[in-house]
Amino acid sequence: MEFKSKVLDVVRNIPKGQTMTYGEVAALAGSDGAARAVGNIMKQNYDPTVPCHRVVRSDGTAGGYNRGEQNKISILQSEGAIK
Predict the structure, then answer these.
(1) Domain span at residue 58?
(2) What is the pLDDT of residues 64-79, one digit of tens each?
(3) What is the CATH number of the domain that holds 14?
(4) Active-site residue among 35, 38, 52, 76?
(5) Is 62 a catalytic residue?
(6) In the predicted structure, residue 57 carries a pLDDT above the cut 90
(7) 46: Cβ contacts below 8 Å, ≥ 6 apart
(8) Of 8, 24, 43, 72, which has the fewest Cβ atoms less than 10 A away?
(9) What total number of domains does the chain contain?
């Protein structure tokens, strides 16, 4: 399975109300240190079954989102993942 598919599978399994960092997703997909690659994959994701808004920066901030960072924050707040 290619890295992109592994990343998408990991992100699909992040439960509502929880987040993972780009680095954590990369590690679970089998490529420690590939956080930037995860970010690039998430930036291109428009599949509603892949909750890419649940992937955040290692410092806990929301980070980018292809539908707008403020929208990402709003969704995470509505899910109870951040205050």
Answers:
(1) 3-79
(2) 999 999 999 999 999 9
(3) 1.10.10.10
(4) 52
(5) no
(6) yes
(7) 66
(8) 43
(9) 1
